[in-house]
């Protein structure tokens, strides 16, 4: 039994340690400043009630990005000093964000202990490395992100902090091997358990999906499959799930070795950054050498986001969640008793709304941020939810879940092909086009302008709000740009009144709603570590079956032109084109 002492270390507050819905994200060079990480961790402990810290069990892991190993040792030593009873760490410090949520909700320690929270070390889909991004966030006992009441307290604490507690003489824990290391400090025993990163999560997935039906699909010579982890933490689960459990070929896995710098890439599963997968699926600029697989998918750095592709076919995240919801009861055993309700983030297309109306399901439109879905799920109001930023999930945990989404699509494909594996395969494209024929098509695109000057971004948003004071003037401007675009009938800043806790979230995005069901939405996003990101969402709903097969960029061209000129995007930002189009 190793003894340790507790030190009180004097510190001073740092500017800008305000966590958003996704936690605190900064460049690594910021986090490695003396006391910077320590301040945030101590401020978090101070924001929690005593019983959530003293004698508690906490999970500390993440996506394995650069600085994670050092951060895990720091947080472990601070946990010991603050009276935490035990810390659970995924082997090699790796746990996907959805797996952390699953561990909090599902894992039972040998002594009957359960986790009451977690420090998750990730900057999500942002790059990693010495000159790139690092992040930290705290999740609560329900497995979901800390609510604003807690994150506000954390921030307040960071502005006044003058000391933190740390067990400086606690030896570094070997996180490469599973097992329990026991220590004793002034407050009593303290244990660190390093456990297999994948086992709890796989057990949960097997309780949700029919693995045998997916295995049959993957064993068919007609069905080919490809999964790209983008060198993120999803790779820690890929071989166990797709190869060992479901029988896929190991050659179907791309970039499935987790790396501190994500192989020098940008671990964001979209058509811009998942270049290798996009090329293999026949969606690149040149035709691939081999016939593309029938199904392809990717996840991001911490494996909570996903992209789904068919052969030469892209499934928008908005369509993906709508199609999962429409097929869940038949195709996924977990939902066989029916869906409690569905929800989407406000910028996500209204494809899910149409499914909810058709199936007579409860429907909710919420601000961007997974915690809003979590509230609905905790209240038993929502089963399936999603957001246009490649996040899809269900009430099995309280985070979005990239691998869950891949398994959901494989389940739908297995269900649609269960009696047809000898015949012509029902493809991803077939499923999507049939969905459009049933529910109509929501043409949709998103333009991201990344690292825009923050002042310029705020001026643009203020200009758009001011414009809304006179919709007749807005419509005059629009008619001067494109006469074939319908009139704006409503303009506002989206505000959400949470039906569970009554909280009100204001200024959640600027909306222009058109007479024909079209929408233009502008949002500022804080997921980057420098500058501001302006997101522009453009949507056109089409019910006419003869018009649902158009190319998306052609169908949306009039609205795109209106959006860019109405907002004076180039004038305010100096950008003639977006950084990313999805």
From TrEMBL:
Cited Pfam families: PGM1_C_vert_fung (PF24947), PGM_PMM_I (PF02878), PGM_PMM_II (PF02879), PGM_PMM_III (PF02880)
Listed CDD domains: PGM1
Recorded GO MF terms: magnesium ion binding; phosphoglucomutase activity
Record EC number: 5.4.2.2
GO cellular component: cytosol
Keyword Zinc among UniProt keywords: no
Names of the cofactor(s): Mg(2+)
Reactions accelerated catalytically: alpha-D-glucose 1-phosphate = alpha-D-glucose 6-phosphate; O-phospho-L-seryl-[protein] + alpha-D-glucose 1-phosphate = alpha-D-glucose 1,6-bisphosphate + L-seryl-[protein]; alpha-D-glucose 1,6-bisphosphate + L-seryl-[protein] = O-phospho-L-seryl-[protein] + alpha-D-glucose 6-phosphate
Top enzyme class: isomerase
Gene Ontology biological process: glucose metabolic process
Keyword Phosphoprotein: yes
Free-text function comment from the UniProt entry: Catalyzes the reversible isomerization of alpha-D-glucose 1-phosphate to alpha-D-glucose 6-phosphate. The mechanism proceeds via the intermediate compound alpha-D-glucose 1,6-bisphosphate. This enzyme participates in both the breakdown and synthesis of glucose.
Protein name: phosphoglucomutase (alpha-D-glucose-1,6-bisphosphate-dependent)
Highest classification ranks of the organism: Eukaryota, Viridiplantae, Streptophyta, Embryophyta, Tracheophyta
